[in-house]
Amino acid sequence: MSGTAVQAGFSQEAFDAFLRSRQEPAWLVQRRQDAWRRFQQLPMPDGRMEEWRRTDIRLFRLDRFGLPAPPPAGAQAPPPLLAEGVDLAGRMATLDSHPLYAELDAKWSNAGVLFGSLDDLAIEHEAVVRPNLSTKAVDPAYDKFSALHAAWWSGGTLLYVPRGVVIDRPLHMLSGLSPGGVDLGHALIVLEEGAEATLLAETASLDPTAAGLHVGAIEILLAPRARLRYVNLQNWGTGVWHFAHQKAIVDRAAGLQWTIGALGSRLAKVNQHVALVGPDAHTQVNGVMFTEGKQHLSYHTLQHHAVPNCRSDLLYKGALQDRSHLVWRGMIHVDKNAIKTDAYQRDDNLILSDSARADSIPGLEILADDVRCSHGATAGRVDDEQIFYTCSRGLTRREAIRMIVAGFFQQVFDRITIGSVRDALGDAIRRRVREYA
After folding, report:
1. In total, how many domains does the chain have?
2. Residues 350 and 408 sit within 8 Å (Cβ to Cβ)
3. Is residue 388 part of a domain?
4. 156 is in which domain, residue-wise?
5. DSSP 7-58
6. For residue 352, what are the contacts with CB-CB under 8 A and spacing of at least 6?
7. pTM given for the model
8. pLDDT band at 289, cuts 50/70/90?
9. What is the mean pLDDT of residues 193-218?
C-alpha cells in the first residue's frame, strides 16, 4: 500500500534493487552510483557544523524510512491550494515519489514544451536532461542529504521551454505524501533563450499530522532573456522531515521571480541559492513563513553575483507562534569583477508568543568596488495598541491578530501577480493564527 517501504532503510541492498527496477541509461546509473558512494563517505550533519548550529536533527532516524511502494490503483493526491480558480496550461502530481498524472495542452506540447515526469523524460529526452541534471546548479556532493537525493531521486518533474516560447498560462505541480511516506522529487526547470513561463508548485500531506520524509532538490536554469515566475509552497504535514537544496542560475538579461511559502513540516532545512551569471540578470526572491507548535524551519539563502550589472532583491517575512523556531541565514556574495552590483536582502519576523524564537543572520561578502549592497533584519511582537485599536472597531482579539498578521505579510503578497495565489497563501496563514496572551 502507499507509504509502505519496499525495503526498510536506504541500504546497499535496497539501492541495488532500486537501480535494477529503474532500467535507466548508463550515464544516469553512473551518476547515481557516484552519489551513493559520496553519501556513504559523508557524515550526518550536526551542531558542530556552522550551517547546522541552530538546527538539531538528533531525533531524526533515516533508517526509519525507505523507498515507498507505488500507490494503489485509484490513489489521489492531496487537494491543491494554488491551482484553485486558475486556468492552467498543464498540471501534474506525484504521491510518495510516484507519478499520478501529467497533462499539458496540445498547443504547448506541439511547440516543443516538455512538462511531466522527469523519471520518463530523462530517458526519452536525454539531450535536454543529461547536460542539465545536477551538473550546473545543485551540487550532489554538497552534504549527506544532497548526495542521498542524487542517488535515490524519483517522482521528479521536468519543465523545458524551447527558445522564444512564451507560455501564457500557469503550470501546476503537486507533490503529495501518504502517512509515513517518502518524497524524493527533483524539479528540473530549463528555459531556453527568450522563453517565458509561470510555474506553481506545492507540497502537501494526506494526513496533516503523520510522519514522513522529503529529501528533494530544485534546479532552475534560465538562458539569456528568459523569464520565470515560480511559486513554491511547502505545506507538508507537521510530522514531516523536510530537507532540500534549491538553486537557480540566471543568465544575461534573464529574470526570475521566486516566491516561497513555508507553512508545514516538523523540521525543515532548506538551502536556497540564486546565481546571477550574465550581465543585466535580475532576481526577486520572496518568502512567506508561518510556524506553530514545535515547528523548526531553517532557510539559508545565497545571492551570488558573479558578473557586473546585476540586481537581486530578497524579502522574507515570518510569523511565529507557540514554541516554534524560525532560522534565516542570508548571504550576498559579490565576486571580484562583479562591479555595478545592486543587491538587497531583508528578513522581518512577527513573534506571536512568549516561547517562539526567531534567528535572523544577514551577511555580506563583497570582493568588488562600485557596488550597492545592503541588508536588514527585524523581530518584534504585535503591538498591544494595534490590537486594542482594532478590537475597538468591533473585532474579536483573534480577528484583530489575524488582520495584523495579514497586514504584516501584505508587502510580500503585493509582489505576487496571480490574485488566486495571493488569496490562497493568505487564507492558509489566517487559518493558523491563534489568539495569544
Report:
1. 1
2. yes
3. no
4. 12-278
5. SSSS-HHHHHHHHHHH---HHHHHHHHHHHHHHHHSPPP-TTSGGGTT---T
6. 319, 320, 321, 381, 382, 401, 405, 433, 434, 436
7. 0.95
8. very high
9. 97
